[in-house]
Design goal:
The chain has 226 residues and is an all-beta fold. It has strands spanning 7-13, 19-20, 28-31, 34-35, 40-47, 52-56, 59-64, 70-72, 78-85, 90-97, 110-116, 120-127, 129-130, 135-141, 145-155, 162-167, 170-174, 180-185, 193-202, 211-217. The chain folds into two domains: 26-130; 132-219, Sandwich (Immunoglobulin-like). A six-stranded antiparallel sheet has the order 2-12-11-6-7-8, with no helix packed on it. The chain has a four-stranded mixed sheet with strand order 1-20-16-17, with no helix packed on it. Keywords: Signal. Residues 1-25 form the signal peptide.
Length: 226
């Protein structure tokens, strides 16, 4: 059996947003993952010599005529900063949605896209609205080694845990296939997850000195876009 002088658990949140843009394009639309109830910010850039619209889940919420200010044409809860010319023919605009939500008649997450009149969709992005809660972690000594178990209730999306073990100044990163997950979705709409991740540090890898275990919750993996 081994002795434990100190075990510490540190929790960090990582989220990666994915947008789809054309190579070398002057058009862009983007947003960052946003907590439920927080302000959602959408930024767009386009060639201002043509008429442009911004859609949310295929519904037009904003129209910007060539070389003119933008106009909201749908009752969507956002604040609008008038277009700013950043180059002779390029403008940008910022939409600020006061409360990010995944529920109700006007959920703010999902697809946002920029369109040119007569040309259709130019660029898109997926605005992820996330839910988080307090994370509980515990460790226990077993015959196999030191067990690490972390769990969180009502989170979205399904979390991934990054676990690294630091012992005597040497850091070991645990691969995902070594971590055991459970995800139970709630019956509510929108869906949330009650999730947990577990890992057992083998006895032979646990020294009789201080150990630090770092667990990272809610890491959205970057998608490959073909």
């Amino acid at each position: 059996m081994f002795a434990m002088h100190r075990t510490a658990v540190t929790l960090t949140i990582y989220l990666i947003s994915v947008s789809v843009e054309k190579a070398n394009a002057k058009e862009s639309i983007s947003c960052s993952p946003t907590l439920e109830g927080s302000e959602l910010i959408v930024n767009a850039t386009w060639v201002n010599t043509v008429d442009m619209s911004i859609k949310h889940n295929e519904v037009i919420v904003l129209i910007c005529m060539a070389k003119q200010n933008c106009t909201s044409i749908y009752k969507f809860p956002f604040k609008l900063a008038n277009p700013v010319d950043i180059m002779d023919s390029i403008s940008s605009v910022t939409l600020k949605v006061e409360t990010a939500t995944r529920e109700g008649s006007q959920p703010t997450g999902g697809k946002w896209s920029l369109h040119y009149f007569g040309k259709g969709e130019m660029v898109t992005t997926n605005c992820l609205v996330v839910a988080m809660s307090d994370i509980q972690c515990e460790s226990s000594t077993t015959t196999s080694g030191l067990g690490i178990h972390c769990f969180a209730s009502e989170v979205f999306p399904q979390p991934l845990c990054d676990i690294s073990v630091n012992a005597e100044g040497v850091t070991q990163f645990i691969t995902q296939d070594q971590i055991i997950y459970t995800h139970h979705n709630t019956s509510s709409e929108p869906v949330y997850y009650n999730s947990s991740c577990s890992y057992v540090i083998p006895s032979q890898d646990v020294p009789a000195t201080a150990i630090t275990v770092d667990v990272c919750q809610l890491k959205k993996m970057k998608k490959s876009i073909i």
